[in-house]
Amino acid sequence: MLRIILLVLAINIALFAANSPVIPTMNFELSAPNSPQQLVSSLNVLVLLTILFLAPSMVLVMTTFTRFVIVLGFLRQAMGTQQVPPTQILVMLAMILTFFVMEPVGTKAYQDGIKPYIEEKMGYEEAFDKTTLPFKNFMIRNTREKDLALFVRIRKMENPKTVADVPLSVIIPAFVISELKTSFEIGFLLFLPFLVIDMVVASILMSMGMMMLPPVMISLPFKILIFVLIDGWNLIIGNLIASIK
């Protein structure tokens, strides 16, 4: 996507140098372009709107946000607290944790690629490679070899020798499915202790002949109490961050 933007900008510069400066205009008429400048202006608007729409999603799938938000969702379901904590709180917590984990990676990418490019110390291609390299290293460290090999095989590529040889179009989907698998594994482990509490409460109620009383009404306070006594948020957040390589 960044390369497409660069290509559009290069076309703009070439047209600007070959012709007199033309201020682009925007309209919503569906008609054929009368000049190359009009076509390039339309393509610019289309590319920028696409980038603005997809950029947040692309950034999130290249970070640990997927793991955090899925595990927190599993935790709420395992406890059976319905909409407590609210979805907005869980998403914001996942984003804050993502920023905490990804800050060193983003700082390195800025120092190695973006800052020298802004200071005009390197070209675009070199800056792009150095900016994406810290993210590539992070994603590959947290990607299963089996998942990475799957997309390399689908692309019919030769086995890459270094991290720089692996394109982002291969690393990103492999990283996403690895994160999904890891988050589901953690979610399964979270469900087990709460499931045991539900089973114990249900067995006690059946033995007392109170089969009409929903076990959830009795088990929910016990699950909340146990979660608070063991300092559950501290344990879960600490282990989630520790699971990231």
Short recap of the structure:
The protein is mostly helical. The chain is built from nine helices and no strands. It is elongated and about 75 Å long.
Structure description:
The protein is built from nine helices and no strands. It is mainly α. 76% of the residues lie in helices and 0% in strands. About 8% of the residues have low confidence. Helix 1 packs antiparallel against helix 2, helix 6 crosses helix 7 and helix 7 crosses helix 8.
Topology:
Blueprint: H1 2-18, H2 36-61, H3 65-79, H4 87-118, H5 124-141, H6 145-155, H7 168-207, H8 215-229, H9 232-242
Helix pairs in contact: 1-2, 3-4, 3-7, 4-5, 5-7, 6-7, 7-8
Order of helices and strands: HHHHHHHHH
Measured between the Cα atoms of the first and last residue, the distance is 28 Å
* Low-pLDDT runs: 4-22
- Helical proportion? over 70%
In round numbers, the mean pLDDT is 76
Structural class category: mainly alpha
Specify the overall morphology.
elongated
Radius of gyration: 25 Å
List keywords for this structure.
mainly alpha; 9 helices; 76% helix; elongated
